[in-house]
Amino acid sequence: MIYSEFENIISPARMSCYLNACNGNTKKAMTLYRLNLRLSQELLTVISCFEVALRNAINTHCLPLGNDWLRNGADTGGIFDNYNCRTTANTINEAVRKLKNNYSHNKLVAELGFGFWRYMFASQQYRVTGKTLLRIFPAKPTSTAAIQYNHTYIFNQLAKINNLRNRIAHHEPICFRLGTSVKDTVYVRQHYALILQLFQWMTIDEAALLYGLNHINSICNKIDQL
């Protein structure tokens, strides 16, 4: 496909940053756009695997609260029935309503998004679930005077992954330095390394889990070399 046709489909406004990054080379701009799509696809797959692992670990850890701990927690008198956890309770109740007659606890777990599970490490949610959720990261480093590897730390690290997930979901490019049209894979590499680190802290063999699915570094290398 010639560039004018490609640009007409994607839009000149959207292609401008790719064209700028490639110094006006239209062939390279199309290649960079396609590499960004591949990178987004690969990274979203890895994030999805991490999300499933995270939510399942949290659910397993919280099952002693009850086999239906999420829905019960959002009911009147439940652990999330308080002012500070109202968004959590509302999210659960909305998911229950959406599932209707297809409801089961496991389907509810799958229905709740990454942001919901991230907020299990917010101060109030962490407190009402027993202040023990950090146990799902048994290989997490011990806190030091310089760095406290506490629930707030985990909450903030998960926010970085959630923000990246949202960028991809909203079709924002991830092959540039943030806020610029400068070709740069540092942002992706750093966040990818963070995901692998959190897998390791959960004592999950990330290389085995992602076998055949993970080509992020090789795509980043192609972008850097373009």
Q: What does this entry look like structurally?
A:
The structure is a single chain. The chain has helices at 3-10, 12-21, 26-62, 69-74, 86-99, 105-111, 114-118, 123-128, 151-169, 186-201, 206-209, 216-225. The protein is mainly alpha-helical. It has one domain (3-225). The longest helix has 37 residues, at 26-62. It starts with a helix and ends with a helix.
**Mind describing the biggest β-sheet?**
none
Strand percentage lies at under 5%
Q: With helices defined by DSSP (H or I, 4 residues minimum), what is the helix count?
A: 12
Mean pLDDT, to the nearest integer, reads 95
Quick take:
By secondary structure, the protein is mainly α.
Sum up the structure in keywords:
226 residues; mainly alpha; 12 helices; 63% helix; 0% strand
Which helices and strands, and how do they pair?
Elements: H1 3-10, H2 12-21, H3 26-62, H4 69-74, H5 86-99, H6 105-111, H7 114-118, H8 123-128, H9 151-169, H10 186-201, H11 206-209, H12 216-225
Helix pairs in contact: 2-3, 3-9, 3-10, 3-12, 9-10
